[in-house]
Amino acid sequence: MVDRLERLTNLLALLLETPRPLTLVEIAGDLDGQYPADERNRRAAFERDKAALRSIGVPIDTSTVVGGPTAGSTGYRIDRAAYELADLDLSPEEMRAVQLAVAAVHTGSSAGDEAIRKLGGSPIGAPVAVSAVVPDRAELPDLRVAIAQRSTIEFSYRGDMRRVDPWGLLLRGGFWYVVGFDHDRQAKRTFRVDRIDDGALTLSDPGAFVRPESFDPRDAFPSDPKLIGHVAEDDVDALVRIDPPRASGVVAEVGDDRVVERTAVGAVIVRVPAANRDAFLSWVLGLAQHAEVLAPAGLRSAVVDALDAVIARGEEAS
Amino acid sequence: MTTKAEARLRRLLVMLPWLMERGEVPLEDVAARFDASITEIEHDIELVAMCGLPPFVDEMVDVFIDDGVVAIGVPRLFTRPLRLTAPEGFTLLAAGRAAMQLPGADPSGPLAAGLEKIGDALYDIGIIEDTPGDDTAGLALELDRPETVDVFAAAVAGGDEFEIVYYSPASDTTTTRRVVPRHVFADGGHWYVVADDDRSGARRTFRIDRIDSARPTGHRGPAPDAPVDRPAFFDDDVPRATLRLRPAARWVSEHYAVDSVEVRRDGSLDVVLPMSSERWLSRLLLRLGDDAECLSPPGAVAGAAALAATIRARYDGAPAG
Asked: Which CATH class is domain B147-220?
């Protein structure tokens, strides 16, 4: 039996060279002795090879042969122009800048280095002074393709099937989000990409929807989770006193314009959104003894209730 | 799933055009560039030299190895690399867009110009739409940064020393220390500076939004032995906690670097995660309340209760104002 790499290379060369689509019978004839003689095994081996070529990015066209002795069979061929990487004409400075970008941004996959080699550059192995980690998710390339070609996507999201017209991808706060129109909810929705269940993403045919004009994923939802309301209350602000040592860190987080008062001992009183009560409580409790909710009274007592519950659990456990 | 033959073919389809452009390349240079052993490269070159179709049996790719040098005869097939795949295109685009947001990026510099040219290749594989260069609407990467990030990034080259006031969540205290920044990076929505720290005498990672103030001292640290990269976050020496999380507390498994997650039949999760200190774990349990149960370490529930009692004392009277 011929080495699989040799057969794959020959198949690729044959489909690139042929002036017209070839049927499996013709392919097996040209690659004499490389595919099994038995028809079923031959078909199975060919399907595996076809899938292998497609998985590394080779575009294989299929068509139905019209006329001639093989009329009606499926024909295969590779369009050389589609196969080959176009000459991008990058200047040495541009190539260097792209190499540095790929070296500085850690995506968790080797795809960036592979791309650099295809473009004729070499990956930079040494660390650069400033870098960023962009989380890798297997779904991202498909999501990007779906957005570009306007395919409706279907995926399982924490066990629920969702149908969404994807409008954009956003990396915010270290997480990837896909923003789009949710068919079942009939409304715009945002989904965390890392919450999409593994291997459960499918794309419809292209051109399935129209994206709203001048859509910007950055406007799709508030950047502060305390603002993402899933409670009925209207805009609720809380007054919180923050003691040193957390005062300056909190001011940097919420912004100077939220500072209501600075005390002589270095504490600050800030006005922060609390429409999402759970997110607010989680935030304020994370500041531990350095924070105290001053108003409104309802939130102040919610903090007390949360603390009492934890104290009670400690007593139960001992 | 990429099998070995596919990975080898993928490498060949990039290697052959690269060799054809050069004509002759020492075997070891080929191996170094493609991150493979000399034996692997030899094997693949010898195999591809045997490939052929009638009537050109054995002549499809005119390549041979002579005295440790790979030589190409008349290039015919595979003169250009295979186009980019969707994952390669996406990674280039995401890395380029992210790098445009790093300190010192020039909106009209060579990276911007290069990304513009790469746009054509990305259009061919459907990664971007038909308006190359005008596609921010569909893909946005936010790496918002405090101003100090740029200060530290600029200081790496010269080894400038700073005096910083730093809040440590593990000890819940602030300390003043002298540091020499060596590397600056963004991860998980935060910025960090890797710096040589006089207080611990070691290289440490500081989260930049926990640096209350930074003042250049006018001193310079010695040049490091080698360029410094971002560190791996947690080592195995850090003690672990095991938490049972209700669905409302699932964010913990996504927000923190966890060792393991086990989904239970009732939808709750058992996670094992590194804990930077007992104080840290107490605060986490406080935030999670009824949505989490701490399975280990055994003293954690009492620790959280003691912290809750401390905070509770603040609420006994009227608001402090």
From this structure: mainly beta
